[in-house]
Design a protein that fits this description.
Layout: E1 7-8, E2 11-14, E3 17-20, H1 31-35, E4 38-40, E5 43-46, E6 55-57, H2 59-72, H3 81-94, E7 101-112, E8 125-135, E9 145-149, H4 170-182, E10 187-191, E11 197-200, E12 204-208, E13 214-216, H5 227-240, E14 245-246, H6 251-256, E15 259-264, E16 268-275, E17 278-279, H7 287-300, E18 311-313
Parallel strand pairs: 9-10, 9-16, 13-14
Antiparallel strand pairs: 1-8, 2-3, 2-8, 4-7, 5-6, 5-7, 6-18, 7-8, 10-11, 12-13, 12-15, 15-16, 16-17
The structure holds pyridoxal-5'-phosphate.
Residues 42, 173, 199, 202-204, 224, 226-229, 263-265 line the site of pyridoxal-5'-phosphate (PLP).
Length: 317
C-alpha cells in the first residue's frame, strides 16, 4: 500500500531528551519487543500551502488517546498532556520540518524492576517513551483501494481492549494485510466474531448505501474509534447535513454499497473501489467520498476557519 519509504528526520525524543535518531540503542531485553506491551499514536502535521507554519491535526485528541492507551497497559508516562504536546511541537520545530510530516510517539514497557521475576507482566516493569518524525505525504492510492475481506477475524475487545492502540495487537492487522496483498489487494477489511464489519488494517470504514444513507460500525465494537472517524462524522453532519448511522454493518451491505471509504490519520480519506475483486458501486470514487475528501483536505490545510481549533500550529523555525 505504501508508495515509498518515509525519510526519518534527524532528531528523536528519547529518554527525556532530544537526541540524534541514529544514536538511539534500545536494549534487546526491552520488554515490549518480546511481549508487544507498547502503545503508540500516529499523528500528522500538515504544511500550509501559503507558507505559514506547519499545523498538527487534532493533537490534543491524539495525546489524550496516548495517555488512555498507556493507562490500559500500566505504562507510566513521565509527562502529562501539556508536556506531551510541547514535546511533539518542539521536536517538529527542532527537526526543521516544513513539509507534511508523520509523528510517531511510542510508550512501552522497558525493563524488569529489581526484584521483579522474569515473565510476561505489566506491573514491576519500567516504562519508556519516545517520539520520532518522518517526512511523509499521502501514501495510499487516492484513486481507490482494493480491499479483501480478511480470513483473520479482528481481535475482540474482550481479549485486547481495541480502544487502546497497543503494539502487540497489530500482529493481527499485519497478518490480514499480508494475506490481502498476497491476493493482489491493497488492504484488508476485518470482521468480528459475529461476521460484522469492524475496520481496515489502519483505518475505519464508512459504507454509503444506494439510498444515500451512511453507516459506520459503532465505536463500542471491536475497532479503534479513530480521531479521523469522529472528524468525518462531525464534518458530514455540520457541512452536508448527512447523519452517519453508527451501527453494526453486514458483509451483505458492503457488497450492495454504492460507495465505501476509509478514514485514518495515515490513509486520510480514501475511497475503496473494490472489495474481494468486485467493484464497489461504479468502481470509481463516489460523490460523497469525493466531498468528504475535499472537506477534510480543506480542514487539515487550514482553509476552514470554523475548524481552526482542530489544528495546532508549530512555531516557525
Ligand atoms: C486499527 C486502526 N483503526 C483505525 C485507525 C484510525 O484512527 P485515527 O483516525 O485516529 O488515525 C487506525 C489508525 O490509527 C488504526 O490503526
Amino acid at each position: 500500500m505504501s508508495t515509498g519509504t518515509p525519510v526519518a528526520t534527524r532528531l528523536a525524543f528519547y529518554q527525556g531528551q532530544f537526541v540524534e535518531n541514529s544514536a538511539v540503542r534500545l536494549p534487546l531485553t526491552t520488554q515490549a519487543l518480546h511481549y508487544g506491551t507498547g502503545v503508540f499514536e500516529g499523528i500528522r502535521a500538515y504544511a500550509d500551502p501559503e507558507g505559514g507554519p506547519l499545523a498538527v491535526f487534532r493533537l490534543r485528541e491524539h495525546v489524550e488517546r496516548l495517555l488512555r492507551s498507556a493507562r490500559t497497559l500500566r505504562i507510566e508516562l513521565p509527562h502529562d498532556a501539556g508536556e506531551l504536546t510541547g514535546i511533539v511541537l518542539d521536536l517538529l520545530d527542532r527537526n526543521g520540518c516544513v513539509g507534511d510530516t508523520y509523528i510517531r510517539p511510542v510508550a512501552y514497557k522497558y525493563a524488569l524492576a529489581p526484584g521483579t521475576p522474569f515473565g510476561v507482566r505489566l506491573s514491576g516493569v519500567s516504562s519508556q517513551f519516545s517520539v520520532t518524525t518522518v517526512a511523509m505525504g499521502s501514501y495510499v492510492p487516492q484513486t481507490g483501494l482494493h480491499c479483501k475481506i480478511s480470513s483473520y477475524r479482528r481481535v475482540p475487545s474482550a481479549s485486547i481492549p481495541s480502544g487502546a492502540k497497543i503494539t502487540g495487537a497489530y500482529a493481527n492487522n499485519a497478518l490480514a494485510v499480508e494475506e490481502a496483498q498476497a491476493d493482489g489487494c491493497d488492504d484488508a477489511l476485518m470482521l468480528d466474531g459475529d461476521g460484522h464489519l469492524t475496520e481496515a488494517s489502519t483505518s475505519n470504514v464508512f459504507v454509503v448505501g444506494r439510498d444515500g444513507r451512511v453507516a459506520t460500525p459503532p465505536a463500542t465494537g471491536d475497532l479503534l474509534p479513530g480521531i479521523t472517524r469522529a472528524s468525518v462524522i462531525e464534518l458530514l453532519e455540520r457541512e452536508t447535513g448527512v447523519v452517519v448511522e453508527e451501527r453494526p454493518v453486514t458483509v451483505a451491505e458492503l457488497a450492495e454499497a454504492g460507495e465505501v471509504f476509509v478514514s485514518g490519520t495515515g490513509v486520510e480519506i480514501c475511497p475503496v473501489t473494490a472489495v474481494d475483486h468486485r467493484p464497489v458501486g461504479t468502481g470509481r470514487p463516489g460523490d460523497l467520498t469525493t466531498e468528504v475528501r475535499r472537506l477534510y483536505t480543506e480542514v487539515v490545510r487550514g482553509r476552514r476557519p470554523a475548524y481552526a481549533s482542530w489544528l495546532t500550529p508549530v512555531r516557525s523555525a
